[in-house]
Request: fold
Amino acid sequence: MISSKTNPPDPPPPPYHYHHYYTPIPPQPHDQNYIVLPYYQDPPNPKPRPANWHVIITVIFLLIAALVYILWPSEPHLKIEHLHLTHVKIHTRVPVCIDITLNVTLKVQNVDVYSMDYKSLDVSVGYRGRKLGHVKSGKGHVRALGSSHVNAKIELECVKVFSDFVFFLEDLAKGTVPFDTVTDVTGRLGLFFFRFPFETKLSCEVLVNTNNQTIIRQHCHRKH
Reply:
């Protein structure tokens, strides 16, 4: 006989739970041959900076000014190196006068970057404001940034000093004689076809030691 009761259904299975199971990877031995590098990304191209025209113009202006300063013609520098009183003779007969011989060594220095040619060089000598005489030399050439020495001999025969006669004798007795000199140089400066005329005058007060024929003191200034 078949039972009217059926077997009860099986209970539903419990909800399935997901479980992640993994096995950890064993640590790898440290290898010194491996280097980890960071990721490198090319930097963006910088934008070109605008040119600083103020600085460029200033530099160009300074260069031009320096070039003009170097090439601009300048008058030569003059200096009396030696002034020797080599001969003095006093004539006591009427008219009373003095014979004087002076040897002058003048240094002409060219401060320009091109040569200098002078046409004439005139040196005059005076005593206590009274002109005694002068001597004029010939042409000469001075190289660029160089110097030249010019020797001149001034022979003064029977110079009448009148009121200054006593002062001159006193100065000779003391061994120091003050002279006034004026040097006038004319010529041309330049290079190739570019020539610049010049004329310069130098006035000096020179105190000469008549015992050892040396210049004790001199004070010079340019005359215009």
Summary: Residues 3 and 168 are 178 Å apart (CA to CA). The longest strand covers residues 176-191. DSSP finds two helices and nine strands in the chain.
